[in-house]
Amino acid sequence: MTRPNTARLAPGWALCVLLLACVVAALGLLHARGPSPLRADAPPDAFSAMRAMAHLEKIAQVPHPVGSAANADVRGYLLAQLRALGLEPEVQSAVGVTRTAAGGNTGKVHNVLVRVPGRAPGKAVMLSAHYDSVPSGPGAADDGASVAAILETLRALRHGPQLEHDVIVLFSDGEEATLLGAEAFVAGHPWAADVGLALNFEYRGNSGPMMMFETSIGNGGLIPGFAQAAAHPVGSSLLYEVYKLLPNDTDMSPFKRAGIPGMNFAAIESPYSYHAEIDRPELLDQRSLQHEGELMLSLVRHFSRQDLSSLAAPDHVYFDVPGALLHYPASWAFPLALGAAALLACLLWQGRRRAQLRVARAMLAIPVFLLMLVVLAGAAQLLWRAITLAHPQYMQFIGPYNSHWYLLAFTALVAAGYSALQAALARWFSALELAAGAMLCWQALLLASALAMPGVSFVFMWPLALMLAAQALMLAPRAQPMSGQWRAVWLLVAAAPAILLFAPLLRSLYVGLGPKSVMAPAALLVLLLGLLSPLLELLTRRWLLPLLPLGAGALALVAGSATAGFSADQPRPSELSYVFDGAAGSAHWVSGNPEPDRWSESYIDAGKGRHAMPLLFGERPGAWWSAGAPAAQIAAPRIDVASDSSDGKQRTLQLRVTSVRQAARLTVAVEGATVLSSTLQGRALADVPRQGWTVNGYALDGDPLDITLHLPAGQPVRIRAIDRSYGLADLGVPARPAGLMGYPFGASDTVQAVSVAELAAPGLNSGKSHERFSQR
Fold it and tell me: How many angstroms separate the Cα of 686 from the Cα of each of 443, 632, 673?
């Protein structure tokens, strides 16, 4: 075999090429930044983030969960602002019910709706966002910013010509309480049948571009409009494929189940603010708000001119590049993949014919490359595990405050590891052979994704095709031998689109999944590096590769460790709740912190360590810090059995469970028996047999949960009821000191009261209500 021209670049050239590659990656990251916010004196028909901020400062002053007095205040503000625009809003008060795999949820919600008439009858465009927040934070980003953006969009629309179609606005209530408002809208409001397109807006952080991460099925009529209308489109079909694998829902889920076409948008950067006390207006990135508002305004104006009754069309593959959204029918994915396969076969044939590549070695490189991928991705995951052992407080975050340092560290260290392994394998594999092995893996992933998940296929299609084309041209019979400098330039040009595509993709995956799933972006990075093996070989020098990225990664780890502390601006999550045992009349302070903080230690007995509390939390008790607490005068939930009968095969149990103290949330769980089917508030839930059946009621105002359970005959059953009110101030608990905040998830800062009923199996054909049972 004739060894390919692999003369390494001179130090100056190598450094220039490496810097240019970094510049391309930076362009890929920077193009997704939102536009600069417009001032309050912007033209009246334009969207101004500064004008929207005036609304946000009113909406997100304090937490305003469903059913709270603060929630009613926000609703009143929305109604007043809509009337000030000359519109006629209405409130839909309803009981929403959602079904889950584990049971269901219900609650009283109050949706705010308004309709802006268009010139012609027909379907309407709907803008939607939820105005409730979680109890743990004021909800400036999630989702007050979207509510404020809709108000500002409506104001801008009122200063322009009348639109062709109606615009419906839904400010839903109870989204944080399992989408109750959106479910109530599609189930009971007449306007739901008029919606031709739903545009839903969310936040999972407080910064970053507003990405389109989900569409309805059959998006071929939506994506071209998004690409045409949006001045700064950000989104990809990959994000939707990943999102479908996650256990997440937004208000778009009920819309899609109702058959409404739609697109879902969210900003996800800085996820440490998600559901937290620090989700405050002054911390929101106004570039995100400006991007969101410009998207709203442009999409409404565009789709109001379209035929909304015929948006459904075969799905498209789509992805953003600087300044544009590229898209094509998903049906093209497999033919394109076959074209790439033909190009790869041509490269292998040319390489063998010109004695530049040994096909057998290229095939052997496949398992070698896969082993490199597994080792490096696994090492990244183990490194994060080691980091969390050194800084256990990171386990309380989706992504810590200084997460950017760790992203830099993982990227640099994986690059260093790959280049080191490639250099070590150089005596057995040329860079082209190793790249060919990687390309064969890419081709397999391309064919599999084109068949099973076409929305993912672009990730493998275009970087692979461009690199194949570049390598094939360099091996063409008429091609002149290139110097090392020109080979590097040619390979960098071919690699630039892949780097441009992968840089924001890696960041989005890292931010979206969190460092706890760093193996996924690390594996994707290894795939990219495998494709770039010939370019990396030209750059490999003792001080440049792998030592330079190794040093950069080590410095980033040091910077991450040095910035791991907390401050008043970046507080540490601190969990504490009060749990009252209704049977024993005793109470406990409970905390789920990974380790006690100085404030919660004054309430819990840290010396005894964390332990399970099945008496309070049932079959899945977890591990908690706890200590005895003064028993407050709290009424535990009441469990009443309306009827309990059996026909010998199936037991039918009708319950009425009430929060006597009218707590904000009431949870009922079934333990020790399988629920075959059930109803909640008279509405059927899933009829798949289920253990661990649970339902929740929100903002019930003292009304009971009416539950019917169908269970196997002859089984005793335990019913556990827990009600939850928000805030510990009534128990005399002082506010946390600066540098601490309530834990944004779970049951932190709540008062919980627990009741348990042990119900023996009734006799056969017993139709009488059971008046006697053990409730504790």
Answer: 41, 38, 16
- DSSP bridge pairs for 694: 103, 669
Helices 403-424 and 519-531, packing angle to 10 deg: 40
Instruction: Please report the pLDDT score of residue 481 as a whole number.
Output: 73
SS (H, E, C) 382-441: HHHHHHHHHCHHHHHCCCCCCHHHHHHHHHHHHHHHHHHHHHHCCCCCCHHHHHHHHHHH
* The pTM of the whole model exceeds 0.85: yes
Percentage of the residues of the chain whose pLDDT score is greater than 70: 96
Residue in the block written with tokens 């490359």: 369
Per DSSP, 745 falls in state S
SS3 75: helix
Positions of the chain with pLDDT lower than 70, given as ranges: 1-8, 478-480, 542-543, 763-776
- Cα distance between residue 73 and residue 338, in whole Å: 59
Is the domain of 752 the same as that of 729?
Answer: yes
Residue 322 lies in a domain: no
Smallest CA-to-CA distance from 752 within 632, 650, 627 is with: 632
Best CA proximity match to 395, nearest among 514, 568, 242: 514
Same domain as 557, residue 582:
no
Q: Are residues 469 and 533 in the same domain?
A: yes
Residues 408 and 260 both lie in one domain: no
SS3 at position 37? coil
Does residue 549 share a domain with residue 422?
Answer: yes
| DSSP-derived pairing of the beta strands 195-203 and 262-267 | parallel
Statement to judge: residues 105 and 74 lie in one domain: yes
Q: Closest by alpha carbon to 161, among 114, 113, 116?
A: 116
pLDDT tens, 57-108?
Answer: 999 999 999 999 999 999 999 999 999 999 999 999 999 999 998 899 999 9
Q: To which residue do tokens 């944080």 refer?
A: 176
DSSP per-residue codes, 265-305: EEE-BSGGGTTSTT--GGGS-HHHHHHHHHHHHHHHHHHTT
Helix axes 457-475, 519-531, angle to 10 degrees: 20
Residue 432: closest CA among 496, 346, 495, 356: 356
Q: Answer whether residue 672 is part of any domain.
A: yes
pLDDT for 488 equals 87
Q: Tell which phi-psi region holds residue 514, choosing left (phi > 0), alpha (psi between -120 and 50) or beta.
A: left
Q: Which of 759, 669, 664 is nearest to 707 (CA)?
A: 669
Burial pattern 555-582, b for ≥16 Cβ within 10 A else e, equals ebbebbeeebebeeeebbbbbbbbbbbb
Sign of dihedral through CA atoms 439, 445, 447, 453?
Answer: negative
d(CA 397, CA 745): 10
Reduced to 3 states (helix: H, G, I; strand: E, B; else coil), residue 624 is strand
CA distances from 105 to 69, 181, 502 (A): 21, 12, 40
Question: Does residue 568 fall inside a structural domain?
Answer: no
Which of 550, 242, 565 minimizes the C-alpha distance to 410?
Answer: 550
**283 and 430: one domain?**
no
The per-residue pLDDT for 767 is 40
Q: Are strands 124-130 and 195-203 parallel, antiparallel or unpaired?
A: parallel
Quote the CA–CA distance of 308 and 324 in Å, as a whole number. Answer: 24
- Residue-wise pLDDT for 541-556, tens only, equals 766 789 999 999 999 9
Instruction: Determine the angle formed by the axes of helices 11-30 and 484-513, rounding to 10 degrees.
Output: 40
Three-state secondary structure of 461-521: HHHHHHHHHHHHHHHCCCCCCCCHHHHHHHHHHHHHHHHHHHHHHHHHHHHHHCHHHCHHH
Show the domain range for 365: 11-31+331-562
For residues 553 and 425, give the distance between their C-alpha atoms in angstroms, rounded to a whole number. Answer: 23
Q: Is 718 helix (H, G, I), strand (E, B) or coil?
A: strand
Q: Which two tokens stand for residue 731?
A: 């128990």
pLDDT score at 775? 53
Whether residues 410 and 545 share a domain: the answer is: yes
